[in-house]
Amino acid sequence: MEKELVELIALGNSIDLGFLSLGFNVKGRFDSPDEGFRKDRNWINVTARVKKSFTLAVNEAAKPQKVNSYGATPRLSIFQKISGNKITSEFQPGNLARILGTNLAFDVDDTELGVYLQQDKEDAFRITEYAKSGKKTILLKIPDDIKPGIYDVEIRVRTRYGKIIKGYFSKSVKVAC
What is the pTM of this model? Predict the structure, then answer.
């Protein structure tokens, strides 16, 4: 559908989808009324206008609720072994690892916070050895006494209001012996 809409707009058509209208206008500088379109000075601005009836229907159907936000949720993007250039989600006990993401910083001395590995909904195993706990990077050691298996990764950070917020890595990691 996107390709067809692009072709129609490129041919100079406006499109009415019932709840949404798509159109365009030409932007840029023209030195005279006879000057044509030049890609180095002009561009096409695509516009989208939501119909008022659609907006009213959404407002009628919506049941919004206020959610108190106590801070930004930690987001784990990458969990990788530090040795070598290969990004892997398989670790050995004692390996050094790097977590990259956002809003990751926590107090390593606070035993309620940190990186936790959890297997099969059992109690979470808290990692205790960290070289760095920064906003975007955590450097840690996979514990020597961890059992082999597949683990989910969770991070717990404390907001400035004292509330603990959890973030999760989207993939499981494997610890092998």
Answer: 0.60
Q: pLDDT of 65-108, one tens digit each? A: 766 666 788 999 998 888 766 667 789 999 999 999 999 999 99
Please answer whether residues 140 and 50 qualify as being in contact, where contact means their C-beta atoms are separated by less than 8 angstroms. no
Under 8 Å between Cβ of 46 and 9 = yes
Give me the mean pLDDT over the 105-123 stretch: 90
Among 63, 43, 46, 49, which Cα is nearest to 19's? 49
Q: Which residues pair with 24 in a beta bridge?
A: 46
User: What pLDDT digit, counting tens, does each position of 10-56 carry?
Assistant: 888 899 988 999 998 888 988 888 888 888 888 889 999 999 999 99
Domains assigned to the chain: 2-61 (no CATH), 75-175 (2.70.50.70)
**31, two tokens:** 């030195």
Return the closest-CA partner of residue 142 out of 80, 84, 87. 80
